[in-house]
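Figure 6 in text form: structure in, sequence out.
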């Protein structure tokens, strides 16, 4: 495996010593461990870490996941020699609730294991064990991934060769290190490929988590704001062979008192996906199409969720949290993309980059038209996105089953696929969609009318000219199969014997069927197939063009620039600093005194109410101790949602982001735990600035006060402090 990232690129790197970050700052500070910014750290802070320091920071940091560790639930870290793991509460509820809906109450009331025996082993949402992955080995495999790729290859051919090479690399890595889990990471949009290999702890147990209301004090009202009062922490433990894992060599020590104003701190975790390397044309597509579509979906989903609670006469304070979080964050993303000053910064950076390319004859010949080629793909995306989004089933279960039924006989599918689907279909019915599912489908159709042309085949052929409610009535009806006295469900997809008989009749029977769900699916399948094919082609084009853009970037600026977040291990530097706010300055930290005052100012009413034990033990708390603090660290949020699975089980789902990341000082001592960012930081997903954006973290002293004074978790507190 080679250390040179691209053949022949070294000659180009000598063109300039000026970095892109120095010229416009737009790529941020999400540093990879294999390419640390030593010159930047020394110049900015007078601090130059050695390899031992970098290795210790990497090995102490973790990524939480399921059996598929690459899915990435969130960030975490080792904070004791006995496998104790610190993370955010938002990274934990999914594992607590998916296999055990009855544990929903635990999310609200909190949990403390008084002994090792009381620590609860956790599962992921797919019923595999919750895992903690530690990055132990990094190798550059760019040359191996690009092996056999030639300048004459089209995008599809390039992708096919790379995919084949990647699989060979992964297979070889597994054979060489069977105890490590390999991942190939694409950096700089495919300009560099790294092989990351993880040690995975698959026995992870819940040790402690606070009340949900303490972790998410202020709920949506305070979410992504500053000042903030959030005790959003949780502790887990990694076990090996049934005993606490020995993590003596790679754990962080606790720093009582935390960090001071202006002090240098580092965040180490797994930032979610960012798009800072996107061109202006790509960001305009996000602004005009993709983000607004997602914002619509979130808005509708939250409304439907609340209508569901009203319909059933219930009030849920748990389930809307993820939707509210996502809605507020997406609005922040869109506001950033619509910000003229930020887009002007992006335009200026892009023009400066182009000028550097065009100033060199060889680079101009090779990359001069790159922006135009990307813009051409973006135009195709603009036309494709609405069809890919709305020429679908809208998540309606009987229509999903009908789609599968049609494809099980469709000669356009492979015989192997048809056989597999028939085996899976046999004897299975389609569940009668509940209130929420029906409402989501009706909303899907309503939103589709805002994005697709009036004569789109989704309306005329799939729905047969009906609106969403009329289509539901034709396919589902209003009754429940088997309920005496009620009307029967209308489509045969609800009745396994009838559907299996249709499948047995083959493609001819499918074509002749007048069943409303089958008729709709028959029209929808070719539309979906066409959209999937075009989507794959556009993905391949963007992947290939992104790699070219990376090569141009390296040629002009070298490799000491930040890479986009990829939900893989990174570290970032920053300082403890307050925020200009409303004509004044918001402090760099908040205290328990402010927490209780904020509750009192709102008459301790939801969402500014504290749990009873917090009120009863108020006098025990040192009101001067910090709760949260902010730093200029470059982070991204993850996303949280509350979902109902097809088997009826409920649970949280959290994906990616810096939430749960450890915050350490230069001595690698724990000073805090990342919660998320402020509203002004959300545009950093696309264009980086650190003038107002901040990373919001829980202070170590706030965690300790809660453990000792509220939860009587002395066992955990002593383990953290080494007593």
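Output sequence:
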């Amino acid at each position: 495996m080679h250390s040179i990232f691209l053949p022949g690129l070294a000659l180009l790197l000598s063109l300039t010593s000026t970095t892109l970050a120095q010229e416009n700052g737009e790529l941020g500070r999400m540093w990879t461990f294999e390419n640390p910014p030593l010159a930047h750290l020394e110049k900015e802070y007078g601090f130059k870490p050695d390899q031992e320091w970098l290795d210790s920071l990497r090995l102490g940091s973790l990524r939480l996941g399921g059996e598929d560790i690459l899915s990435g639930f969130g960030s975490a870290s080792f904070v004791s020699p006995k496998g104790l793991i610190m993370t955010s509460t938002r990274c934990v509820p999914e594992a607590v609730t998916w296999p055990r809906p009855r544990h929903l109450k635990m999310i609200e009331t909190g949990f403390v294991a008084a002994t090792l025996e009381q620590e609860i082993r956790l599962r992921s949402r797919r019923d595999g064990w919750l895992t903690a992955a530690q990055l132990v080995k990094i190798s550059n495999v760019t040359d191996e991934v690009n092996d056999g790729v030639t300048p004459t290859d089209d995008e599809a051919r390039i992708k096919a060769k790379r995919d084949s090479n990647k699989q060979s690399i992964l297979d070889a890595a597994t054979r060489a290190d069977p105890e490590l889990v390999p991942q190939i990471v694409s950096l700089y949009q495919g300009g560099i490929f790294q092989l990351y290999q993880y040690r995975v702890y698959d026995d992870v147990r819940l040790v402690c988590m606070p009340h949900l209301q303490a972790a998410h004090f202020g709920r949506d009202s305070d979410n992504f704001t500053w000042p903030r009062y959030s005790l959003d922490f949780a502790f887990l433990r990694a076990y090996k062979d049934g005993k606490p894992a020995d993590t003596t060599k790679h754990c962080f020590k606790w720093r009582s008192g935390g960090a001071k104003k202006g002090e240098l701190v580092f965040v180490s975790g797994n930032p979610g996906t960012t798009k800072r390397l996107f061109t202006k044309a790509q960001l305009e597509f996000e602004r005009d199409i993709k983000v607004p579509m997602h914002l619509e979906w979130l808005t509708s989903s939250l409304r439907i969720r609340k209508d569901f609670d009203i319909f059933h006469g219930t009030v849920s304070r748990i389930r809307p949290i993820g939707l509210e979080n996502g809605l507020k964050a997406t609005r922040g993303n869109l506001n950033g993309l619509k910000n003229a000053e930020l887009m002007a910064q992006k335009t200026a950076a892009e023009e400066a980059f182009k000028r550097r390319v065009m100033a060199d004859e060889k680079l101009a010949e090779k990359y001069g038209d790159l922006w135009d080629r990307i813009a051409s793909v973006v135009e195709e995306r603009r036309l494709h996105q609405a069809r890919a989004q709305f020429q679908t089933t809208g998540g309606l279960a009987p229509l999903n089953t009908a789609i599968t039924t049609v494809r099980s006989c469709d000669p356009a599918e492979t015989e192997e696929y048809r056989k597999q689907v028939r085996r899976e279909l046999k004897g299975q019915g389609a569940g009668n969609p509940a209130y929420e599912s029906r409402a989501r489908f009706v909303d899907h159709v309503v939103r589709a009318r805002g994005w697709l042309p009036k004569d789109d085949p989704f309306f005329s052929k799939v729905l047969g000219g009906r609106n969403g409610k009329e289509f539901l009535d034709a396919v589902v009806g209003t009754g429940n199969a088997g309920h005496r006295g009620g009307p029967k469900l209308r489509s045969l997809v609800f009745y396994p014997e009838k559907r299996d008989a249709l499948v047995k009749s083959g493609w001819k029977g499918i074509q002749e069927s007048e069943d409303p769900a089958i008729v709709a699916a028959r029209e929808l399948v070719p539309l979906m197939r066409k959209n999937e094919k075009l989507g794959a082609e556009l993905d391949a084009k963007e992947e290939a063009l992104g790699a070219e853009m990376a090569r141009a970037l390296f040629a002009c600026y070298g490799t000491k620039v930040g890479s986009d977040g990829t939900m893989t291990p990174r570290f970032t530097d920053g300082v403890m600093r307050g925020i200009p706010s409303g004509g004044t300055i918001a402090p760099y930290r908040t205290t328990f005194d402010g927490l209780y005052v904020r509750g009192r100012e709102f008459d301790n009413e939801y969402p500014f109410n504290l749990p009873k034990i917090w009120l009863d033990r108020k006098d025990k708390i040192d009101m001067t101790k910090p709760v949260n603090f902010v730093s200029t660290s470059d982070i991204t949020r993850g996303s949280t949602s509350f979902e109902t699975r097809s088997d009826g089980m409920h649970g949280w789902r959290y994906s990616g982001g810096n939430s749960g990341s450890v915050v350490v000082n230069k001595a690698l001592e724990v000073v805090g735990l990342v919660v998320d960012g402020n509203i002004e930081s959300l545009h950093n997903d696309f264009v980086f600035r650190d003038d107002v954006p901040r990373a919001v973290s829980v202070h170590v002293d706030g965690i300790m006060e809660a453990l000792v004074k509220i939860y009587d978790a002395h066992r955990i507190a002593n383990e953290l402090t080494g007593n």
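Caption detail: Confidence is low (pLDDT under 50) at residues 1-22, 480-487, 640-654.
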